[in-house]
Design a protein that fits this description.
Helix content is about 50%, strand content about 15%. It is an alpha+beta fold. It folds into 3 domains: about 15-85, Winged helix-like DNA-binding domain superfamily/Winged helix DNA-binding domain (Arc Repressor Mutant, subunit A, Orthogonal Bundle), CATH 1.10.10; about 125-270, Endonuclease Chain A (Endonuclease, Chain A, 2-Layer Sandwich), CATH 3.30.870.10; about 270-345, Orthogonal Bundle (Arc Repressor Mutant, subunit A), CATH 1.10.10.10. Helix 1 (about 15-25) crosses helix 2, helix 10 (about 275-285) packs across helix 11 (about 290-300) and helix 11 (about 290-300) crosses helix 12. The two termini are about 60 Å apart.
Length: about 350
């Protein structure tokens, strides 16, 4: 017997099916070749019969001659056709109850471990989904100020769109919100749109040439930094409530903030910070970093990084990257190990 829910489209009762069913009720039976006086095509009749049989609203008569069907009361048909669904629902209900019982056995261990963890001033969360939920909860509950450091270039439109409404709501509650990006984030259209919306709502946004790592600080009581020990692509996070550590991280933010440039969201690209970007490229070249590492540190593509290097070589009159790196090292007074990728950036 076919499950009527296995193909809802094929069992949808249309006008042709109703016409065949009414004719069958009135006449006591229906011949499989009957087109109702030409009102239906043979294909329409075939589809209508198939639907009604699937719903068990038509039943095949046991005749020796032609193929005839008789009508079945819809209430009877429902009881018959819904029986497999009722069995499935009962089985799923039993499975749900077993699942709940199995997970309930883990609840005491979870609560005990979580209580111990919450008593600690450092909590490590490896599940990215839980990290996201915790950050959302802290954003919703903060009361005075939030600062955040976002290294790299611009962020994805999807990520920013998801955060925009929540962040604007936070600003409307009177929470002070400061964001620190790298200069190269100015070249991102989605990030620029996000910054424009938030600055209009009262946020302050600045950019600087280089940032070490992502950071959130809520109400100067909780700091959140990435935990990149995770084997997954998305890192976990460390939630820190130790007052001296939070104060230290906040002072690091303030130090970078004081050196950063305000981001005017009406400006296009990062041309207003281009000199700082080029100076950072030159300094990293002087330290012996490869193009890939320089690009990663500044949050730009390798192609963009090489374009800056080519511009710098032209300005310096250098004929090779090596020559430019040596000249840069002399300028900055850096002892240079040429053309090697630093191990601490692997």
């Amino acid at each position: 017997m076919q499950d009527p829910m296995s193909d809802q489209e094929s069992t949808h009762v249309d006008d042709a099916a109703i016409a065949v069913y009414v004719h069958t009720v009135r006449n006591g039976r229906f011949h499989s070749q009957d087109t109702l006086g030409g009102r239906l095509t043979e294909e329409e009749v075939e589809r209508a019969v198939e639907k009604l049989v699937c719903l068990q609203a038509l039943r095949l008569l046991d005749t020796a001659a032609d193929t005839y069907y008789t009508a079945v009361d819809p209430e009877v048909a429902f009881r018959r056709s819904s029986a497999p669904l009722a069995q499935r629902i009962e089985a799923l209900s039993d499975a749900r109850e077993r699942l709940q019982q199995d997970l309930a056995l883990l609840k005491p261990a979870f609560e005990s471990a979580r209580t111990e963890q919450e008593r600690s001033d450092i909590t490590v969360v490896m599940d990215p989904m839980e990290v996201t939920e915790r950050l959302r909860r802290e954003t919703d509950n903060c009361v005075s100020d939030v600062v955040t450091v976002q290294p790299g270039g611009g962020r994805s439109a999807t990520t920013l769109e998801a955060a925009k409404e929540r962040d604007v709501s936070m600003l409307e509650r009177g929470v002070e919100f400061r964001i620190l990006y790298q200069h190269t984030a100015r070249g991102s259209i989605p990030t620029g749109s996000y910054v424009r919306t938030l600055t209009q709502a009262g946020a302050e946004v600045r950019t600087i040439e280089e940032l070490p790592e992502r950071l959130f600080i809520f109400d100067r009581r909780l700091a959140v930094i990435p935990d990149r020990r995770a084997i997954t692509k998305v890192p976990g996070a460390v939630f820190i409530t130790n007052p001296p550590v939070v104060a230290f991280l906040h002072s690091v933010f303030e130090s970078n903030w004081s050196k950063a440039s305000p981001w005017r969201p009406t400006a296009v690209g990062y041309q207003e910070a281009i000199d700082d970007v080029k100076l950072s490229v030159l300094r990293l070249m002087a330290m012996g970093y490869t193009d890939d590492v320089v690009a990663r540190r500044l949050g730009v593509s390798v192609r963009t990084c090489r374009r800056h290097i080519a511009d710098l070589m032209g300005e310096m009159g250098a004929t090779s990257r090596f020559e430019a790196g040596v000249a840069a090292a002399e300028t900055f007074g850096i002892k240079r190990a040429p053309d090697i990728e630093r191990i601490d950036d692997e």
